[in-house]
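Subject: VOC family protein structure
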Amino acid sequence: MKKIQTLGVHHITLTGADRQSSIDFWEGVLGMPFIFDQPNLDNDDEGHLYFDPGDGRLITIFTNENRKPVHDRTPTDPGCVHHLAFEVDHAMFDQVLERLEERGIPNSGVKDRGFMHSIYFKDPLGLLIELACYNFIPPRGSSHAEVMLEAHKLRVARGAKAIEREHLADAAVMIVERSQRSLSEDRGAKNPYK
């Protein structure tokens, strides 16, 4: 038996309401360019809208002009989507609360997750959306996932409940020392000011 190796998220498809409310939210609130529009090839009563969330991947929405927006929370039963998280940079993250407030969109306020900060709010259909901003930059040639893996190992070894900024910083040092060569034989911390 062999694994089926994935290479990343290809797209996520959501059931939307009408076409215009979908465009107004995904492009008009979240800034995702509306890049492709065609019928749902499996259901002639639906449209299929495509948006770029910022990384060239796709968020797609099935629309139907007879469906109306629902303002309750989408189901969180086992097997259901709890929330979708989208990355924003620090400059944008600092503006999110004000920009949500301008539209009267209730939100969670800023949540400090140690390795990132998050703000949660619901889309017009009740789907929980998270806007997340990492508290670290991965070393060149590395990824957020690689830093998180190393930080997790440090967290567990040190008996911490959650990943803290010290774990992230130490993980970055480990990754740089492992991936970038040096002429020095001893790369340990030094104090040249003594």
